[in-house]
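Researcher: Sequence recovery benchmark, item below. Answer with residues only.
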């Protein structure tokens, strides 16, 4: 069932999203060679809890053990932070995080370079972020989910990237994952019609190589089948009469 949110509920999600936005502003200075993903996770939990009433949304969710999903290089999503996983120059790091505030959730992700990265990798980050913006622009009343997915897919197809199909965006609100699913591929004019009050986590995942992924034995970390790098960007977006409203900036 799809739950349409009131203006007041959307404002609450936006307050949770503002905490995520401030976390994203602070984290690039901490993503550096020699830093462990475990350090980043401990800092992020303290940062979120320093805001009255705010809680990390992912910690304990479905049994996940950490505040952040931190996925390095060929890891697509759901990487588990560890003090043994130390970042190196030239890595890219996907950081996915959620915040719960006053019974509502916000969800966002960013992929960051660790120092200088190869030109094809830098372009992957740039175009994945562009695809997110293109997808968000379609999140208007009367549009279709296929319009959102097609806008994202068109960027990937133009660059020759693999678009992950096993993992998709989703509704978000009183639960961290709600209906509808929001694929990063689609056909314009097809799919569910978007209505005012929907709140969607839109999150393109582009691979430099194949779209095929697999899950590691830890049952969480999803990696590219060919071990080529992957990028992931995400915002929580409300469908409003005035157009898409990004709630995590």
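Model:
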């Amino acid at each position: 069932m799809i739950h349409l949110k009131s203006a007041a509920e959307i404002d609450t999600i936006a307050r949770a999203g503002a905490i995520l936005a401030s976390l994203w502003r602070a984290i690039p200075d901490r993503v550096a060679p020699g830093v462990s993903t475990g350090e980043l996770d401990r800092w992020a939990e303290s940062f979120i809890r320093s805001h009255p009433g705010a809680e990390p949304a992912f910690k304990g969710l479905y049994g996940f053990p950490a505040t952040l999903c931190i996925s390095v290089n060929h890891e697509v999503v759901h990487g588990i932070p560890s003090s043994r996983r130390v970042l190196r120059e030239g890595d890219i790091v996907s950081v996915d995080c959620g915040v719960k505030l006053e019974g509502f959730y916000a969800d966002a992700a960013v992929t960051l370079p660790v120092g200088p990265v190869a030109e094809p990798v830098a372009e992957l980050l740039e175009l994945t972020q562009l695809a997110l913006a293109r997808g968000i622009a379609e999140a208007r009343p009367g549009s279709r989910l296929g319009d959102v997915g097609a806008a994202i897919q068109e960027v990937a197809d133009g660059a020759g990237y693999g678009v992950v199909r096993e993992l998709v965006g989703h509704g978000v609100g009183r639960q961290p994952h709600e209906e509808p699913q929001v694929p990063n591929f689609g056909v314009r004019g097809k799919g569910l019609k978007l209505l005012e009050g929907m709140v969607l986590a839109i999150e393109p995942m582009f691979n430099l190589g194949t779209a095929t992924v697999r899950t590691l034995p830890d049952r969480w970390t999803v990696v590219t089948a060919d071990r080529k790098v992957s990028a992931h960007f995400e915002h929580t977006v409300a469908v409003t009469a005035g157009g898409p409203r990004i709630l995590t900036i």
